[in-house]
Amino acid sequence: MEEKQTMTNEQLESNLKSLQIKATITKLLTYAAGAAMIIVWFFMGNLVMGLVLLVIALVFGYLSAKSSSTLKKLLSDNIIGGVLKEALGDAVEYNPWGKINPGSMVFPFSYNCAGGSDHIKAVYNGLNIELGDIELINETENTDENGNTQKNSQTCFKGQWLTCDFGKELSGQVYISEWTKKDRRSMKSNVTMDNEQFGKRFCVRADDPQEAYYILTPHMMEYIISIADKSGGTVYMSFLRDGKLHVAVQTGRDFFELGKNNANVEELRQKFLGELRWFTDIVDTLRVEDTLYKKESNI
Q1: What pLDDT is stored for residue 299 in this prediction?
Q2: pLDDT at res. 262
Q3: Which of 69, 70, 37 is nearest to 53 (CA)?
Q4: pLDDT at 152
């Protein structure tokens, strides 16, 4: 994919900043109108004013979503295309509103619904990869004694997900999950690793402990610690026997966001490149690790 930039950097930066301000202001006004509606309707019993505030909240919500969508398209057309080509090569497809499907992973939570955006598909150094933002959500329904049903939705994970197909069978099926303090109660390792620092930081699960030892060599454990230090979030990995690698990072944010950036075009390019290269560096490193792959039989 290629950039379609038809304006100067100064014009682009001005438009990005303007849209960012509009999206932020309308989002805040949506929350304010929504909070006021709850107070007026449910606590003060003023139904008419509550309905008026509800309509106002919906209008501001629509305006916020519209500004965010326009901002995303502007980034996609003018910056992201070139960044993807530089990081992943020419064979890349990008859908700002598409989503990646989650794969097999060991998490300290349960989920039954997945959303996402910024779906990327590419052939990177001869390997098929997918990458994108993902939200894992647990939706539940509760019915009270009067038969009224209430739906609840809890976001358990928000971050990025990489799937890489190495094209050949791996040495085993191994799952690695970075622990937080509360996770130790819900996740238990069934494999004990020699690296004490690694063992304190990561839960390791495998059907056969020997498969974990094949894949998680001393060098590999040191490498995983180093990439986790640079991830900006909580890291989960799965090495699957069919040749797939999954890497999920719970960052609490999306790819390709302006954030607190001043909309400087070159700074944005470098920021987006850095986000992508954290994942491509993993692919580049692991693709040449001989211990990752099942040894061919000489029989």
Answers
A1: 42
A2: 64
A3: 37
A4: 83
Sequence-distant (6+) residues with CB within 8 A of 8 are: none
The letter for the amino acid at 140 is T
Q: Please check whether residue 119 is in contact with residue 102, taking contact to mean a CB–CB distance below 8 angstroms.
A: no
List the strands of the sheet with 174-178, edge to edge: 92-95, 113-124, 127-143, 149-165, 244-250, 234-239, 174-178, 202-206
Report angle CA 282, 285, 290 to the nearest 5 degrees.
130
pLDDT recorded at residue 5? 54
Q: What is the mean pLDDT of each run of 10 residues along the chain (299 residues)?
A: 63 76 84 86 82 84 79 78 90 91 89 92 94 92 72 90 94 90 73 88 90 91 94 94 95 81 79 92 91 68
Cα–Cα distance, 23 to 74 (Å, whole number): 14
By residue count, the chain amounts to 299
- Count of CB atoms situated within 10 Å of the CB of 160: 26
Query: Using N-to-C axis directions, what is the helix angle for 47-75 and 9-38, rounded to 10°?
Result: 160
